[in-house]
């Protein structure tokens, strides 16, 4: 059956899931590509994840995205994982193969890098030291992406130091773990600062970091996208640093997912961005 005769199916599994912007994003892309199909929010309890994933081929799904709390648990359920998912330790996208087996991929790192490059086409990962704050699931994708892109020095700072050490052991590469108390001074000489913590997200206090040591030409990025300008990004903009928020990371991870599911590389347009921004 060719793509145009099929009703394309994909979705996002999470618990809860109704906050996810993925149905709006992928629904827009289906319309943009003039395809018949649906991308559904799938509320799956953790104890039903294996059954839900195994049902995808029978239901005719091309695959699905995974969100909290399923990204790590799915590693033990799918039939194979790609190199990025193995290094990151989490799956963001499941692909139903032609033989109905399941492949787990992680596209967060691609989304993060492409979001930066879209905003600043001449950005380079090897321009100087990069300070990454946080060592959770988001940080793992960010650090993996930066290293793949050629980062020469990553200063990793996390409130819980052991978690930063675990990330360093799992991913490898030029990572130096910096104690939480030294985070302000760690910004000296940095070319980039990335916040991957939940601090600054709507409902949470701002990230506690003093930008005084950060060079004026450094890029400041936050993977949070609600609000679009976190207190960190506002403070950085006010002192003259360039800033990029997390919306590009969300939007661009859809491209490799579509390539795997439907064989299409969709365009992330300004109209799509505005459509998703209107849901905030
Ligand atoms: N743009 C995107 O596509 C995208 C993708 C993924 C995530 N995100 C966003 O990234 C953020 C983190 O998500 P995640 O999945 O990485 O979460 P996570 O795995 O739960 O990690 C949370 C991180 O925040 C830190 N943190 C929490 N409370 C803190 C506090 N009071 N002070 C300092 N650090 C604190 C944690 O430090 P400890 O280890 O010390 O607890 C950890 O490093 C969320 O806002 C999420 O929406 C965005």
Write a structural description.
- The model has no long low-confidence stretch (mean pLDDT 96).
- The chain has helices at 22-32, 49-59, 83-88, 108-119, 137-148, 161-171, 231-238, 247-252, 254-262, 270-277; strands at residues 8-14, 37-43, 63-66, 80-81, 93-96, 102-105, 130-133, 154-157, 175-178, 192-195, 219-222, 242-244.
- β5 (93-96) and β6 form a beta hairpin.
- The chain has 2 domains: 3-107 and 253-277, Leucine Dehydrogenase, chain A, domain 1 (Rossmann fold, 3-Layer(aba) Sandwich), CATH 3.40.50.10860; 109-248, NAD(P)-binding Rossmann-like Domain (Rossmann fold), CATH 3.40.50.720.
- With 280 residues, the chain is α/β, with parallel strands linked by helices.
- The strands form 2 sheets. Strands 2-1-3-5-6-4 form a 6-stranded mixed sheet, sandwiched between helices. The chain has a 6-stranded parallel sheet with strand order 9-8-7-10-11-12, with helices on both faces.
- It is globular.
- The protein is built from 10 helices and 12 strands.
- NADP nicotinamide-adenine-dinucleotide phosphate binds next to α4, α5 and α8.
- NADP nicotinamide-adenine-dinucleotide phosphate binds at residues 108, 111, 134-139, 158-160, 163, 196-199, 201, 223-225, 246, 249-250.
């Amino acid at each position: 059956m060719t793509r145009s005769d099929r009703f394309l199916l994909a979705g996002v599994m999470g618990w809860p899931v109704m906050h996810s912007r993925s149905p709006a994003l992928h629904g827009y892309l289906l319309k943009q590509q003039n395809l018949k199909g649906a991308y559904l929010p799938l509320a799956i309890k953790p104890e039903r994840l294996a059954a839900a994933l195994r049902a995808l081929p029978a239901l005719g799904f091309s695959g699905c995205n995974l969100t909290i709390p399923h990204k790590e648990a799915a590693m033990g359920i799918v039939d194979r994982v790609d190199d990025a998912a193995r290094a990151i330790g989490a799956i963001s996208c499941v692909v139903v193969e032609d033989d109905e087996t399941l492949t787990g991929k992680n596209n967060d790192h691609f989304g993060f890098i492409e979001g930066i490059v879209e905003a600043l086409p001449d950005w380079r990962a090897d321009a100087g030291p990069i300070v990454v704050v946080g060592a959770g699931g988001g940080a793992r994708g960010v650090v993996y992406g930066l290293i793949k892109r050629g980062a020469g020095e990553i200063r990793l700072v996390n409130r819980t130091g052991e978690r930063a050490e675990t990330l360093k052991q799992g991913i490898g590469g030029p990572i130096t773990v910096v104690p939480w108390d030294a985070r302000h001074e760690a910004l000296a000489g940095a070319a980039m600062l990335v916040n991957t913590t939940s601090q600054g997200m709507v409902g949470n206090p701002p990230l506690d970091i003093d930008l005084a040591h950060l060079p004026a030409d450094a890029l400041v990025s936050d993977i949070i996208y609600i609000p679009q300008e976190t207190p960190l990004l506002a403070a950085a903009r006010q002192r003259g640093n360039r800033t990029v928020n997390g919306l590009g990371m969300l939007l661009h991870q859809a491209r490799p997912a579509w390539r795997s599911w439907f064989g299409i590389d969709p365009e992330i347009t300004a109209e799509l961005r505005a459509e998703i921004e209107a849901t905030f």
